[in-house]
Design brief:
This protein is of the alpha/beta class. The chain has one domain: ABC-type transport auxiliary lipoprotein component (Rossmann fold, 3-Layer(aba) Sandwich). The protein is 19% helix and 34% strand. The protein contains 2 helices and 9 strands, in the order βββββαββββα. Strands 3, 4, 5, 6, 7, 8 and 9 form a 7-stranded mixed beta sheet that branches. Strand 4 and strand 5 form a beta hairpin. Helix 1 packs across helix 2. This is ABC-type transport auxiliary lipoprotein component domain-containing protein. InterPro entries: ABC_trans_aux (IPR005586).
């Protein structure tokens, strides 16, 4: 993990997530036990009209555990200073995520698909139930990019693949990319933007796979 000294602009207070509540936290001087940021929504993020899907759905969908490259297999809060060194991946000294990006998105996507009611059932990757389709999501990017000392955006990108659960033949595949601008150049603003990007991302993946039920 690369640790850097934060510029003065990082002195603004940061908001940390505890479930859906917001707590105030420090910046680069935050204590080691600071509550980690969490993009996982505990409330319904599916529009009411989407929840009125047909109750005659007969297809069971299984969401395989979301995968990600090795550099994302961490709860470290990673970011780029694109205006200084676009290739260097940096990490906050104290700020961190409540889980890995794959774990957080897995939870959000499973919840979203289950609430949409487009499927007879949506099973987690650990479930032993019988399914007709398997949805695999490979996360390729989950990072906050600061494009200037006082500007930046959250980025989530990945590829979804829908498979036949019986012979594992590919039914469809689609790439997704969501960005949300930061309101301020801070870790808290990055986490808030990442939460919003996560909502857009899982919504887009869910809407895409729902058309195959």
């Amino acid at each position: 993990m690369i640790v850097v000294r934060m510029p003065r602009l990082w002195g603004s207070a940061r908001l940390g997530f505890l479930g859906t509540a917001f707590l105030l936290g420090g910046c680069a001087t935050a204590t080691p036990w600071q509550v980690p940021y969490n993009i996982s929504a505990l409330h319904s993020s599916v529009p009411a009209e989407a929840q009125k899907a047909s109750h005659n759905a007969q297809v069971v969908l299984q969401l395989a555990s979301v995968s990600a490259p090795s550099w994302l297999d961490t709860n470290t809060y990673q970011y780029h200073l694109l205006y200084q060194n676009p290739q260097m991946l940096l990490s906050y000294r104290d700020a961190r995520w409540v889980g890995t990006p794959a774990e957080m998105l897995d939870m959000r996507l499973l919840q979203h698909l289950q609430q949409s009611q487009h499927w007879k059932a949506v099973l987690s990757g650990q479930s032993s139930g019988a399914a007709q389709y398997v949805l695999r999501l490979h996360l390729s990017n989950f990072v906050v990019n600061f494009t200037a000392p006082q500007a930046g955006q959250a980025l989530i990108a990945g590829t979804a693949t829908l498979l036949n659960a019986h012979n594992y033949q590919v039914i469809a595949q689609q790439s997704f990319r969501q960005t949300v601008p930061l309101k301020t150049a801070s870790a808290a603003a990055g986490a808030a933007a990442m939460t919003q990007a996560g909502s857009h991302f899982v919504g887009a993946v869910s809407a895409w796979v729902d058309q195959y039920q």
